[in-house]
Design a protein that fits this description.
single chain; about 375 residues; alpha+beta; SH3 type barrels; Alpha-Beta Plaits; five-stranded antiparallel sheet; 12 helices; 8 strands; about 55% helix
Length: about 375
């Protein structure tokens, strides 16, 4: 088959007086150019199908993630197919073929990783976190994000292994190490014990899901949302945009608060401290009015109670509900500010105060002035 292809080459390429170096350069240049032309035609086809005006397009996502890998993969593939037409000594052609094989392996791994990113884009579009009740979406995203990290790491490890095992000397070393694999496995097991426990903890979190992407947690005294779950750590986005980084097995071994474990709905509380003279019913009516006027309230829970009484003040708790933790935080701030403002303007005498009674008795016999 290859002999037939060689016979079909143009006469100037088969001309014996053409230097081998020039012939090889022509073949390499033509192969790379042909690969880029094929990629350009494919990109034009995908661009016609891609619609960038909408939020998600499968073809646009494909072009975004696979455009760069195919810039290298297709020219290298065509160049690899053109090797029989090149005039080189056997040792050089073998070395050149080995370099192309390694480059193609790396490009193929790059394509596989970016294909997973395309699947992630589709899943993120299908399961949008912006919904009010996004419990199912957070479950799917948590599992997908961890699995994506794991599969990407596996692809990279397999690619490195495939490249190393393609060398005959490395295979001989590997065969010699088989005898000591038992002892070596024990040593590696002890050395990588912490890393393996993190990976196993990640699998446990991904499928039992004590935490999920976008869950609201209170950890180490900090309030924040789960932003990312990797193979070894979890990123918590604090309310003031700081990031708290915790090892993934922390959430298996230590207690923490998860405010959105069962649903995205959440209760909010506001504590007000006032004097005993405050009319609680009036304050309760004002809370109801504030919640009715707010778009942040979900219309489910509304309550105001005296939850504690001290020697100087009484503690009043306003209870309200919201669709998610972000709305709950904003609603609590809104209610707290307006209740204080209401008390200041209508019942200023009921603000917390300290009473001091001073009694003074005059002695009947005053000393004479000198």
């Amino acid at each position: 088959m290859l002999n037939k292809l060689v016979m079909q080459l143009p006469p100037f390429l088969k001309n014996a007086h053409l230097p081998d170096f020039i012939l090889n350069l022509i073949i390499i240049g033509a192969a790379l150019l042909l690969g880029r032309i094929i990629k350009f035609i494919l990109a034009l086809f995908v661009k016609k199908k891609a619609d960038q005006t909408i939020k998600y397009s499968f073809f646009y996502s494909t072009l975004k993630y696979l455009g760069k890998p195919f810039n290298y993969f297709l020219p290298l593939l065509v160049l690899n197919m053109s090797l029989p037409f090149m005039r080189m000594q056997g040792i050089y052609i073998l070395r050149f073929e080995k370099v192309l094989e390694i480059a193609l392996t790396i490009c193929f791994a790059w394509i596989l990783i970016n294909t997973i990113n395309i699947a992630q884009d589709y899943t993120f579009h299908k399961f949008d976190l912006k919904k009010a009740d996004n419990l199912k979406e957070r479950k799917i995203r948590t599992q997908l994000q961890y699995i994506r990290h794991f599969v990407n790491a596996l692809i990279i490890l397999l690619t490195i292994a495939a490249i190393l095992l393609s060398f005959h000397s490395v295979r001989k070393i590997g065969a010699g190490l088989v005898a000591g694999v038992g002892v070596g496995g024990i040593i590696i097991g002890f050395a990588a014990q912490k890393s393996l426990s993190n990976i196993l903890a990640g699998f446990q979190i991904a499928f039992t899901q004590p935490i999920r992407i976008d869950d609201v947690l209170v950890v180490e005294g900090e309030w924040g949302r789960v932003e990312e779950i990797t193979l070894t750590y979890v990123v918590l986005r604090i309310w003031d945009l700081r990031r708290l980084i915790l090892p993934i097995n922390y959430f298996i071994e230590k207690p923490f608060q998860n405010w959105t474990r069962a649903s995205s709905e959440i209760l909010g509380t506001v504590f007000i401290y006032t004097d005993y003279s405050i009319p609680v019913n009036k304050l309760r009516d004002e809370l109801s009015r504030l919640l009715r006027d707010s778009k942040l309230w979900d219309g489910k829970i509304n309550g105001l109670q005296i939850t504690d009484s001290k020697e100087k003040t009484m503690e009043i708790r306003a209870l309200m509900s919201a669709a998610n933790s972000s709305d709950s935080f904003d609603l609590r701030c809104y209610v707290r500010e307006n209740l204080i403002n209401y008390i200041q303007h209508n019942y200023p005498e009921s603000l917390p105060k300290t009473r001091t009674e001073i009694s003074c008795s005059l002695s009947p016999e005053l000393p004479e002035k000198t």
